[in-house]
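Q: Ethanolamine:proton symporter (EAT family), please. Structure only.
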Amino acid sequence: MSDTQGVSYNKVDQGYFDKRGLRRYAGVWSLWALGVGAVISGHFSGWNLGLANGWGSMLMATIIIAVMYLGLTFSLAEMSPALPHTGGAYSFARTAMGPWGGFLTGLSENVEYVLTPAVIVYFISSYMAGIFGTAPAYLPLWWVGFYIVFVGLNIVGVELSFKVTVVITLLALACLVVFWVSALPHIDFARWAMNVGEGGALLPEGRGPLLPLGLSGVLACLPFAVWLFLAIEQLPLAAEESVDPKRDMPRGILAGIFTLIVSAFMILWLNPSVAGIGSHQLAKSGEPLLDGFKAIYGDGIAKALALVAVLGLVASFHTIIFAKGRQIYSLSRAGYFPSVLSVTHGSRKTPHLAMMLGSVLALAVMFVLWFTLGADKGAAVIGGTLLNMAVFGAMFSYIMQALSFIRLRSKLPQMERPYRSPLGVPGAALTVAIAVVTLYFQLSDPLYRDGVL
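A: Structure for Ethanolamine:proton symporter (EAT family):
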């Protein structure tokens, strides 16, 4: 059959779906851990680059981006129990805007979920190479090893996958809490956090202006503030593995975003305020949390602290592999990707083929860049351009998901909604507006444009 949008449909029997079944296991806390774990690595590093524009600029940008994510997550909290399908963003957009809207949204998320773990595993491997003293030439072996371990854990079963997610998410959060408590006796906010002056100059005595670059500094910080919340939107992908999605999905999503908001503002306040570091220095750091720990406890336990920093990266790596498998599975089951990719494991009921192919594709991209560009340049592209590609996919999907929410409110007003967003259409519209502005300023960065192209 075909419809007016030029899309052909094939009829399938019950056997098609029997081979593509998932197992229900996740409750509220499993869903909370999945959402928080996916994001938590952004609280360990990445966000700090925005401090080059001044601490006040980063604060204002974080407030704006937090508002955007609140609008998004409240919209997801309404749509996910109303349409509890593993497709998540794809299924919302398809219901609201038809097959092509679903395809574009699903494809943008696919870019995000395939490439983000590749970048994360690169950073994990860099840490591990430093800890164990392995040569840079052996980094690809670390990549393969981590993919084998964590894809394997996700294939073994949804029960094990969620148990691991809860444990590593709690450990990563515990690391952050230990840092907050440790930092409090060692902070001088005015002296260190406020040491960026006009034009981004270093102020040795601190006490600089709140917005040293004015409004342009705030806008320039928006892409970096995204790191503090990026990937919370993956939670609806677990809808068909939730025991009671109509009850648990909204609770898990909202508990996750409010946890992340608290953590984001704590790390933004304390990390730049630690004596001896400051916003100006932290803006150039690849491991700001590790620098904070070193300033407090000294360099003598650097390797142990590096392992602490790896925990946040591992939490996000594991949870986004989970999301990648479900996302590819859902697009395959719907017929957008080859149908074989949605076949689930006979006894484990996990989308093993989807996770394996997505991981092989990510590794293939990494290996091509590594060996064609050389280790040094390849590393820069993996750590920069691939990451920008993933973020672009995410931002586009946010716009599509918020538009889907608005469209569903008008197109299907009578649809059963176990949870209704208190922010409603205005909240979703604000999400679209902030996402568009953020995307514009991301595209103003030449390196980011390379990734998009």
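A: Brief note, in case it's useful. The chain has a mean pLDDT of 88.
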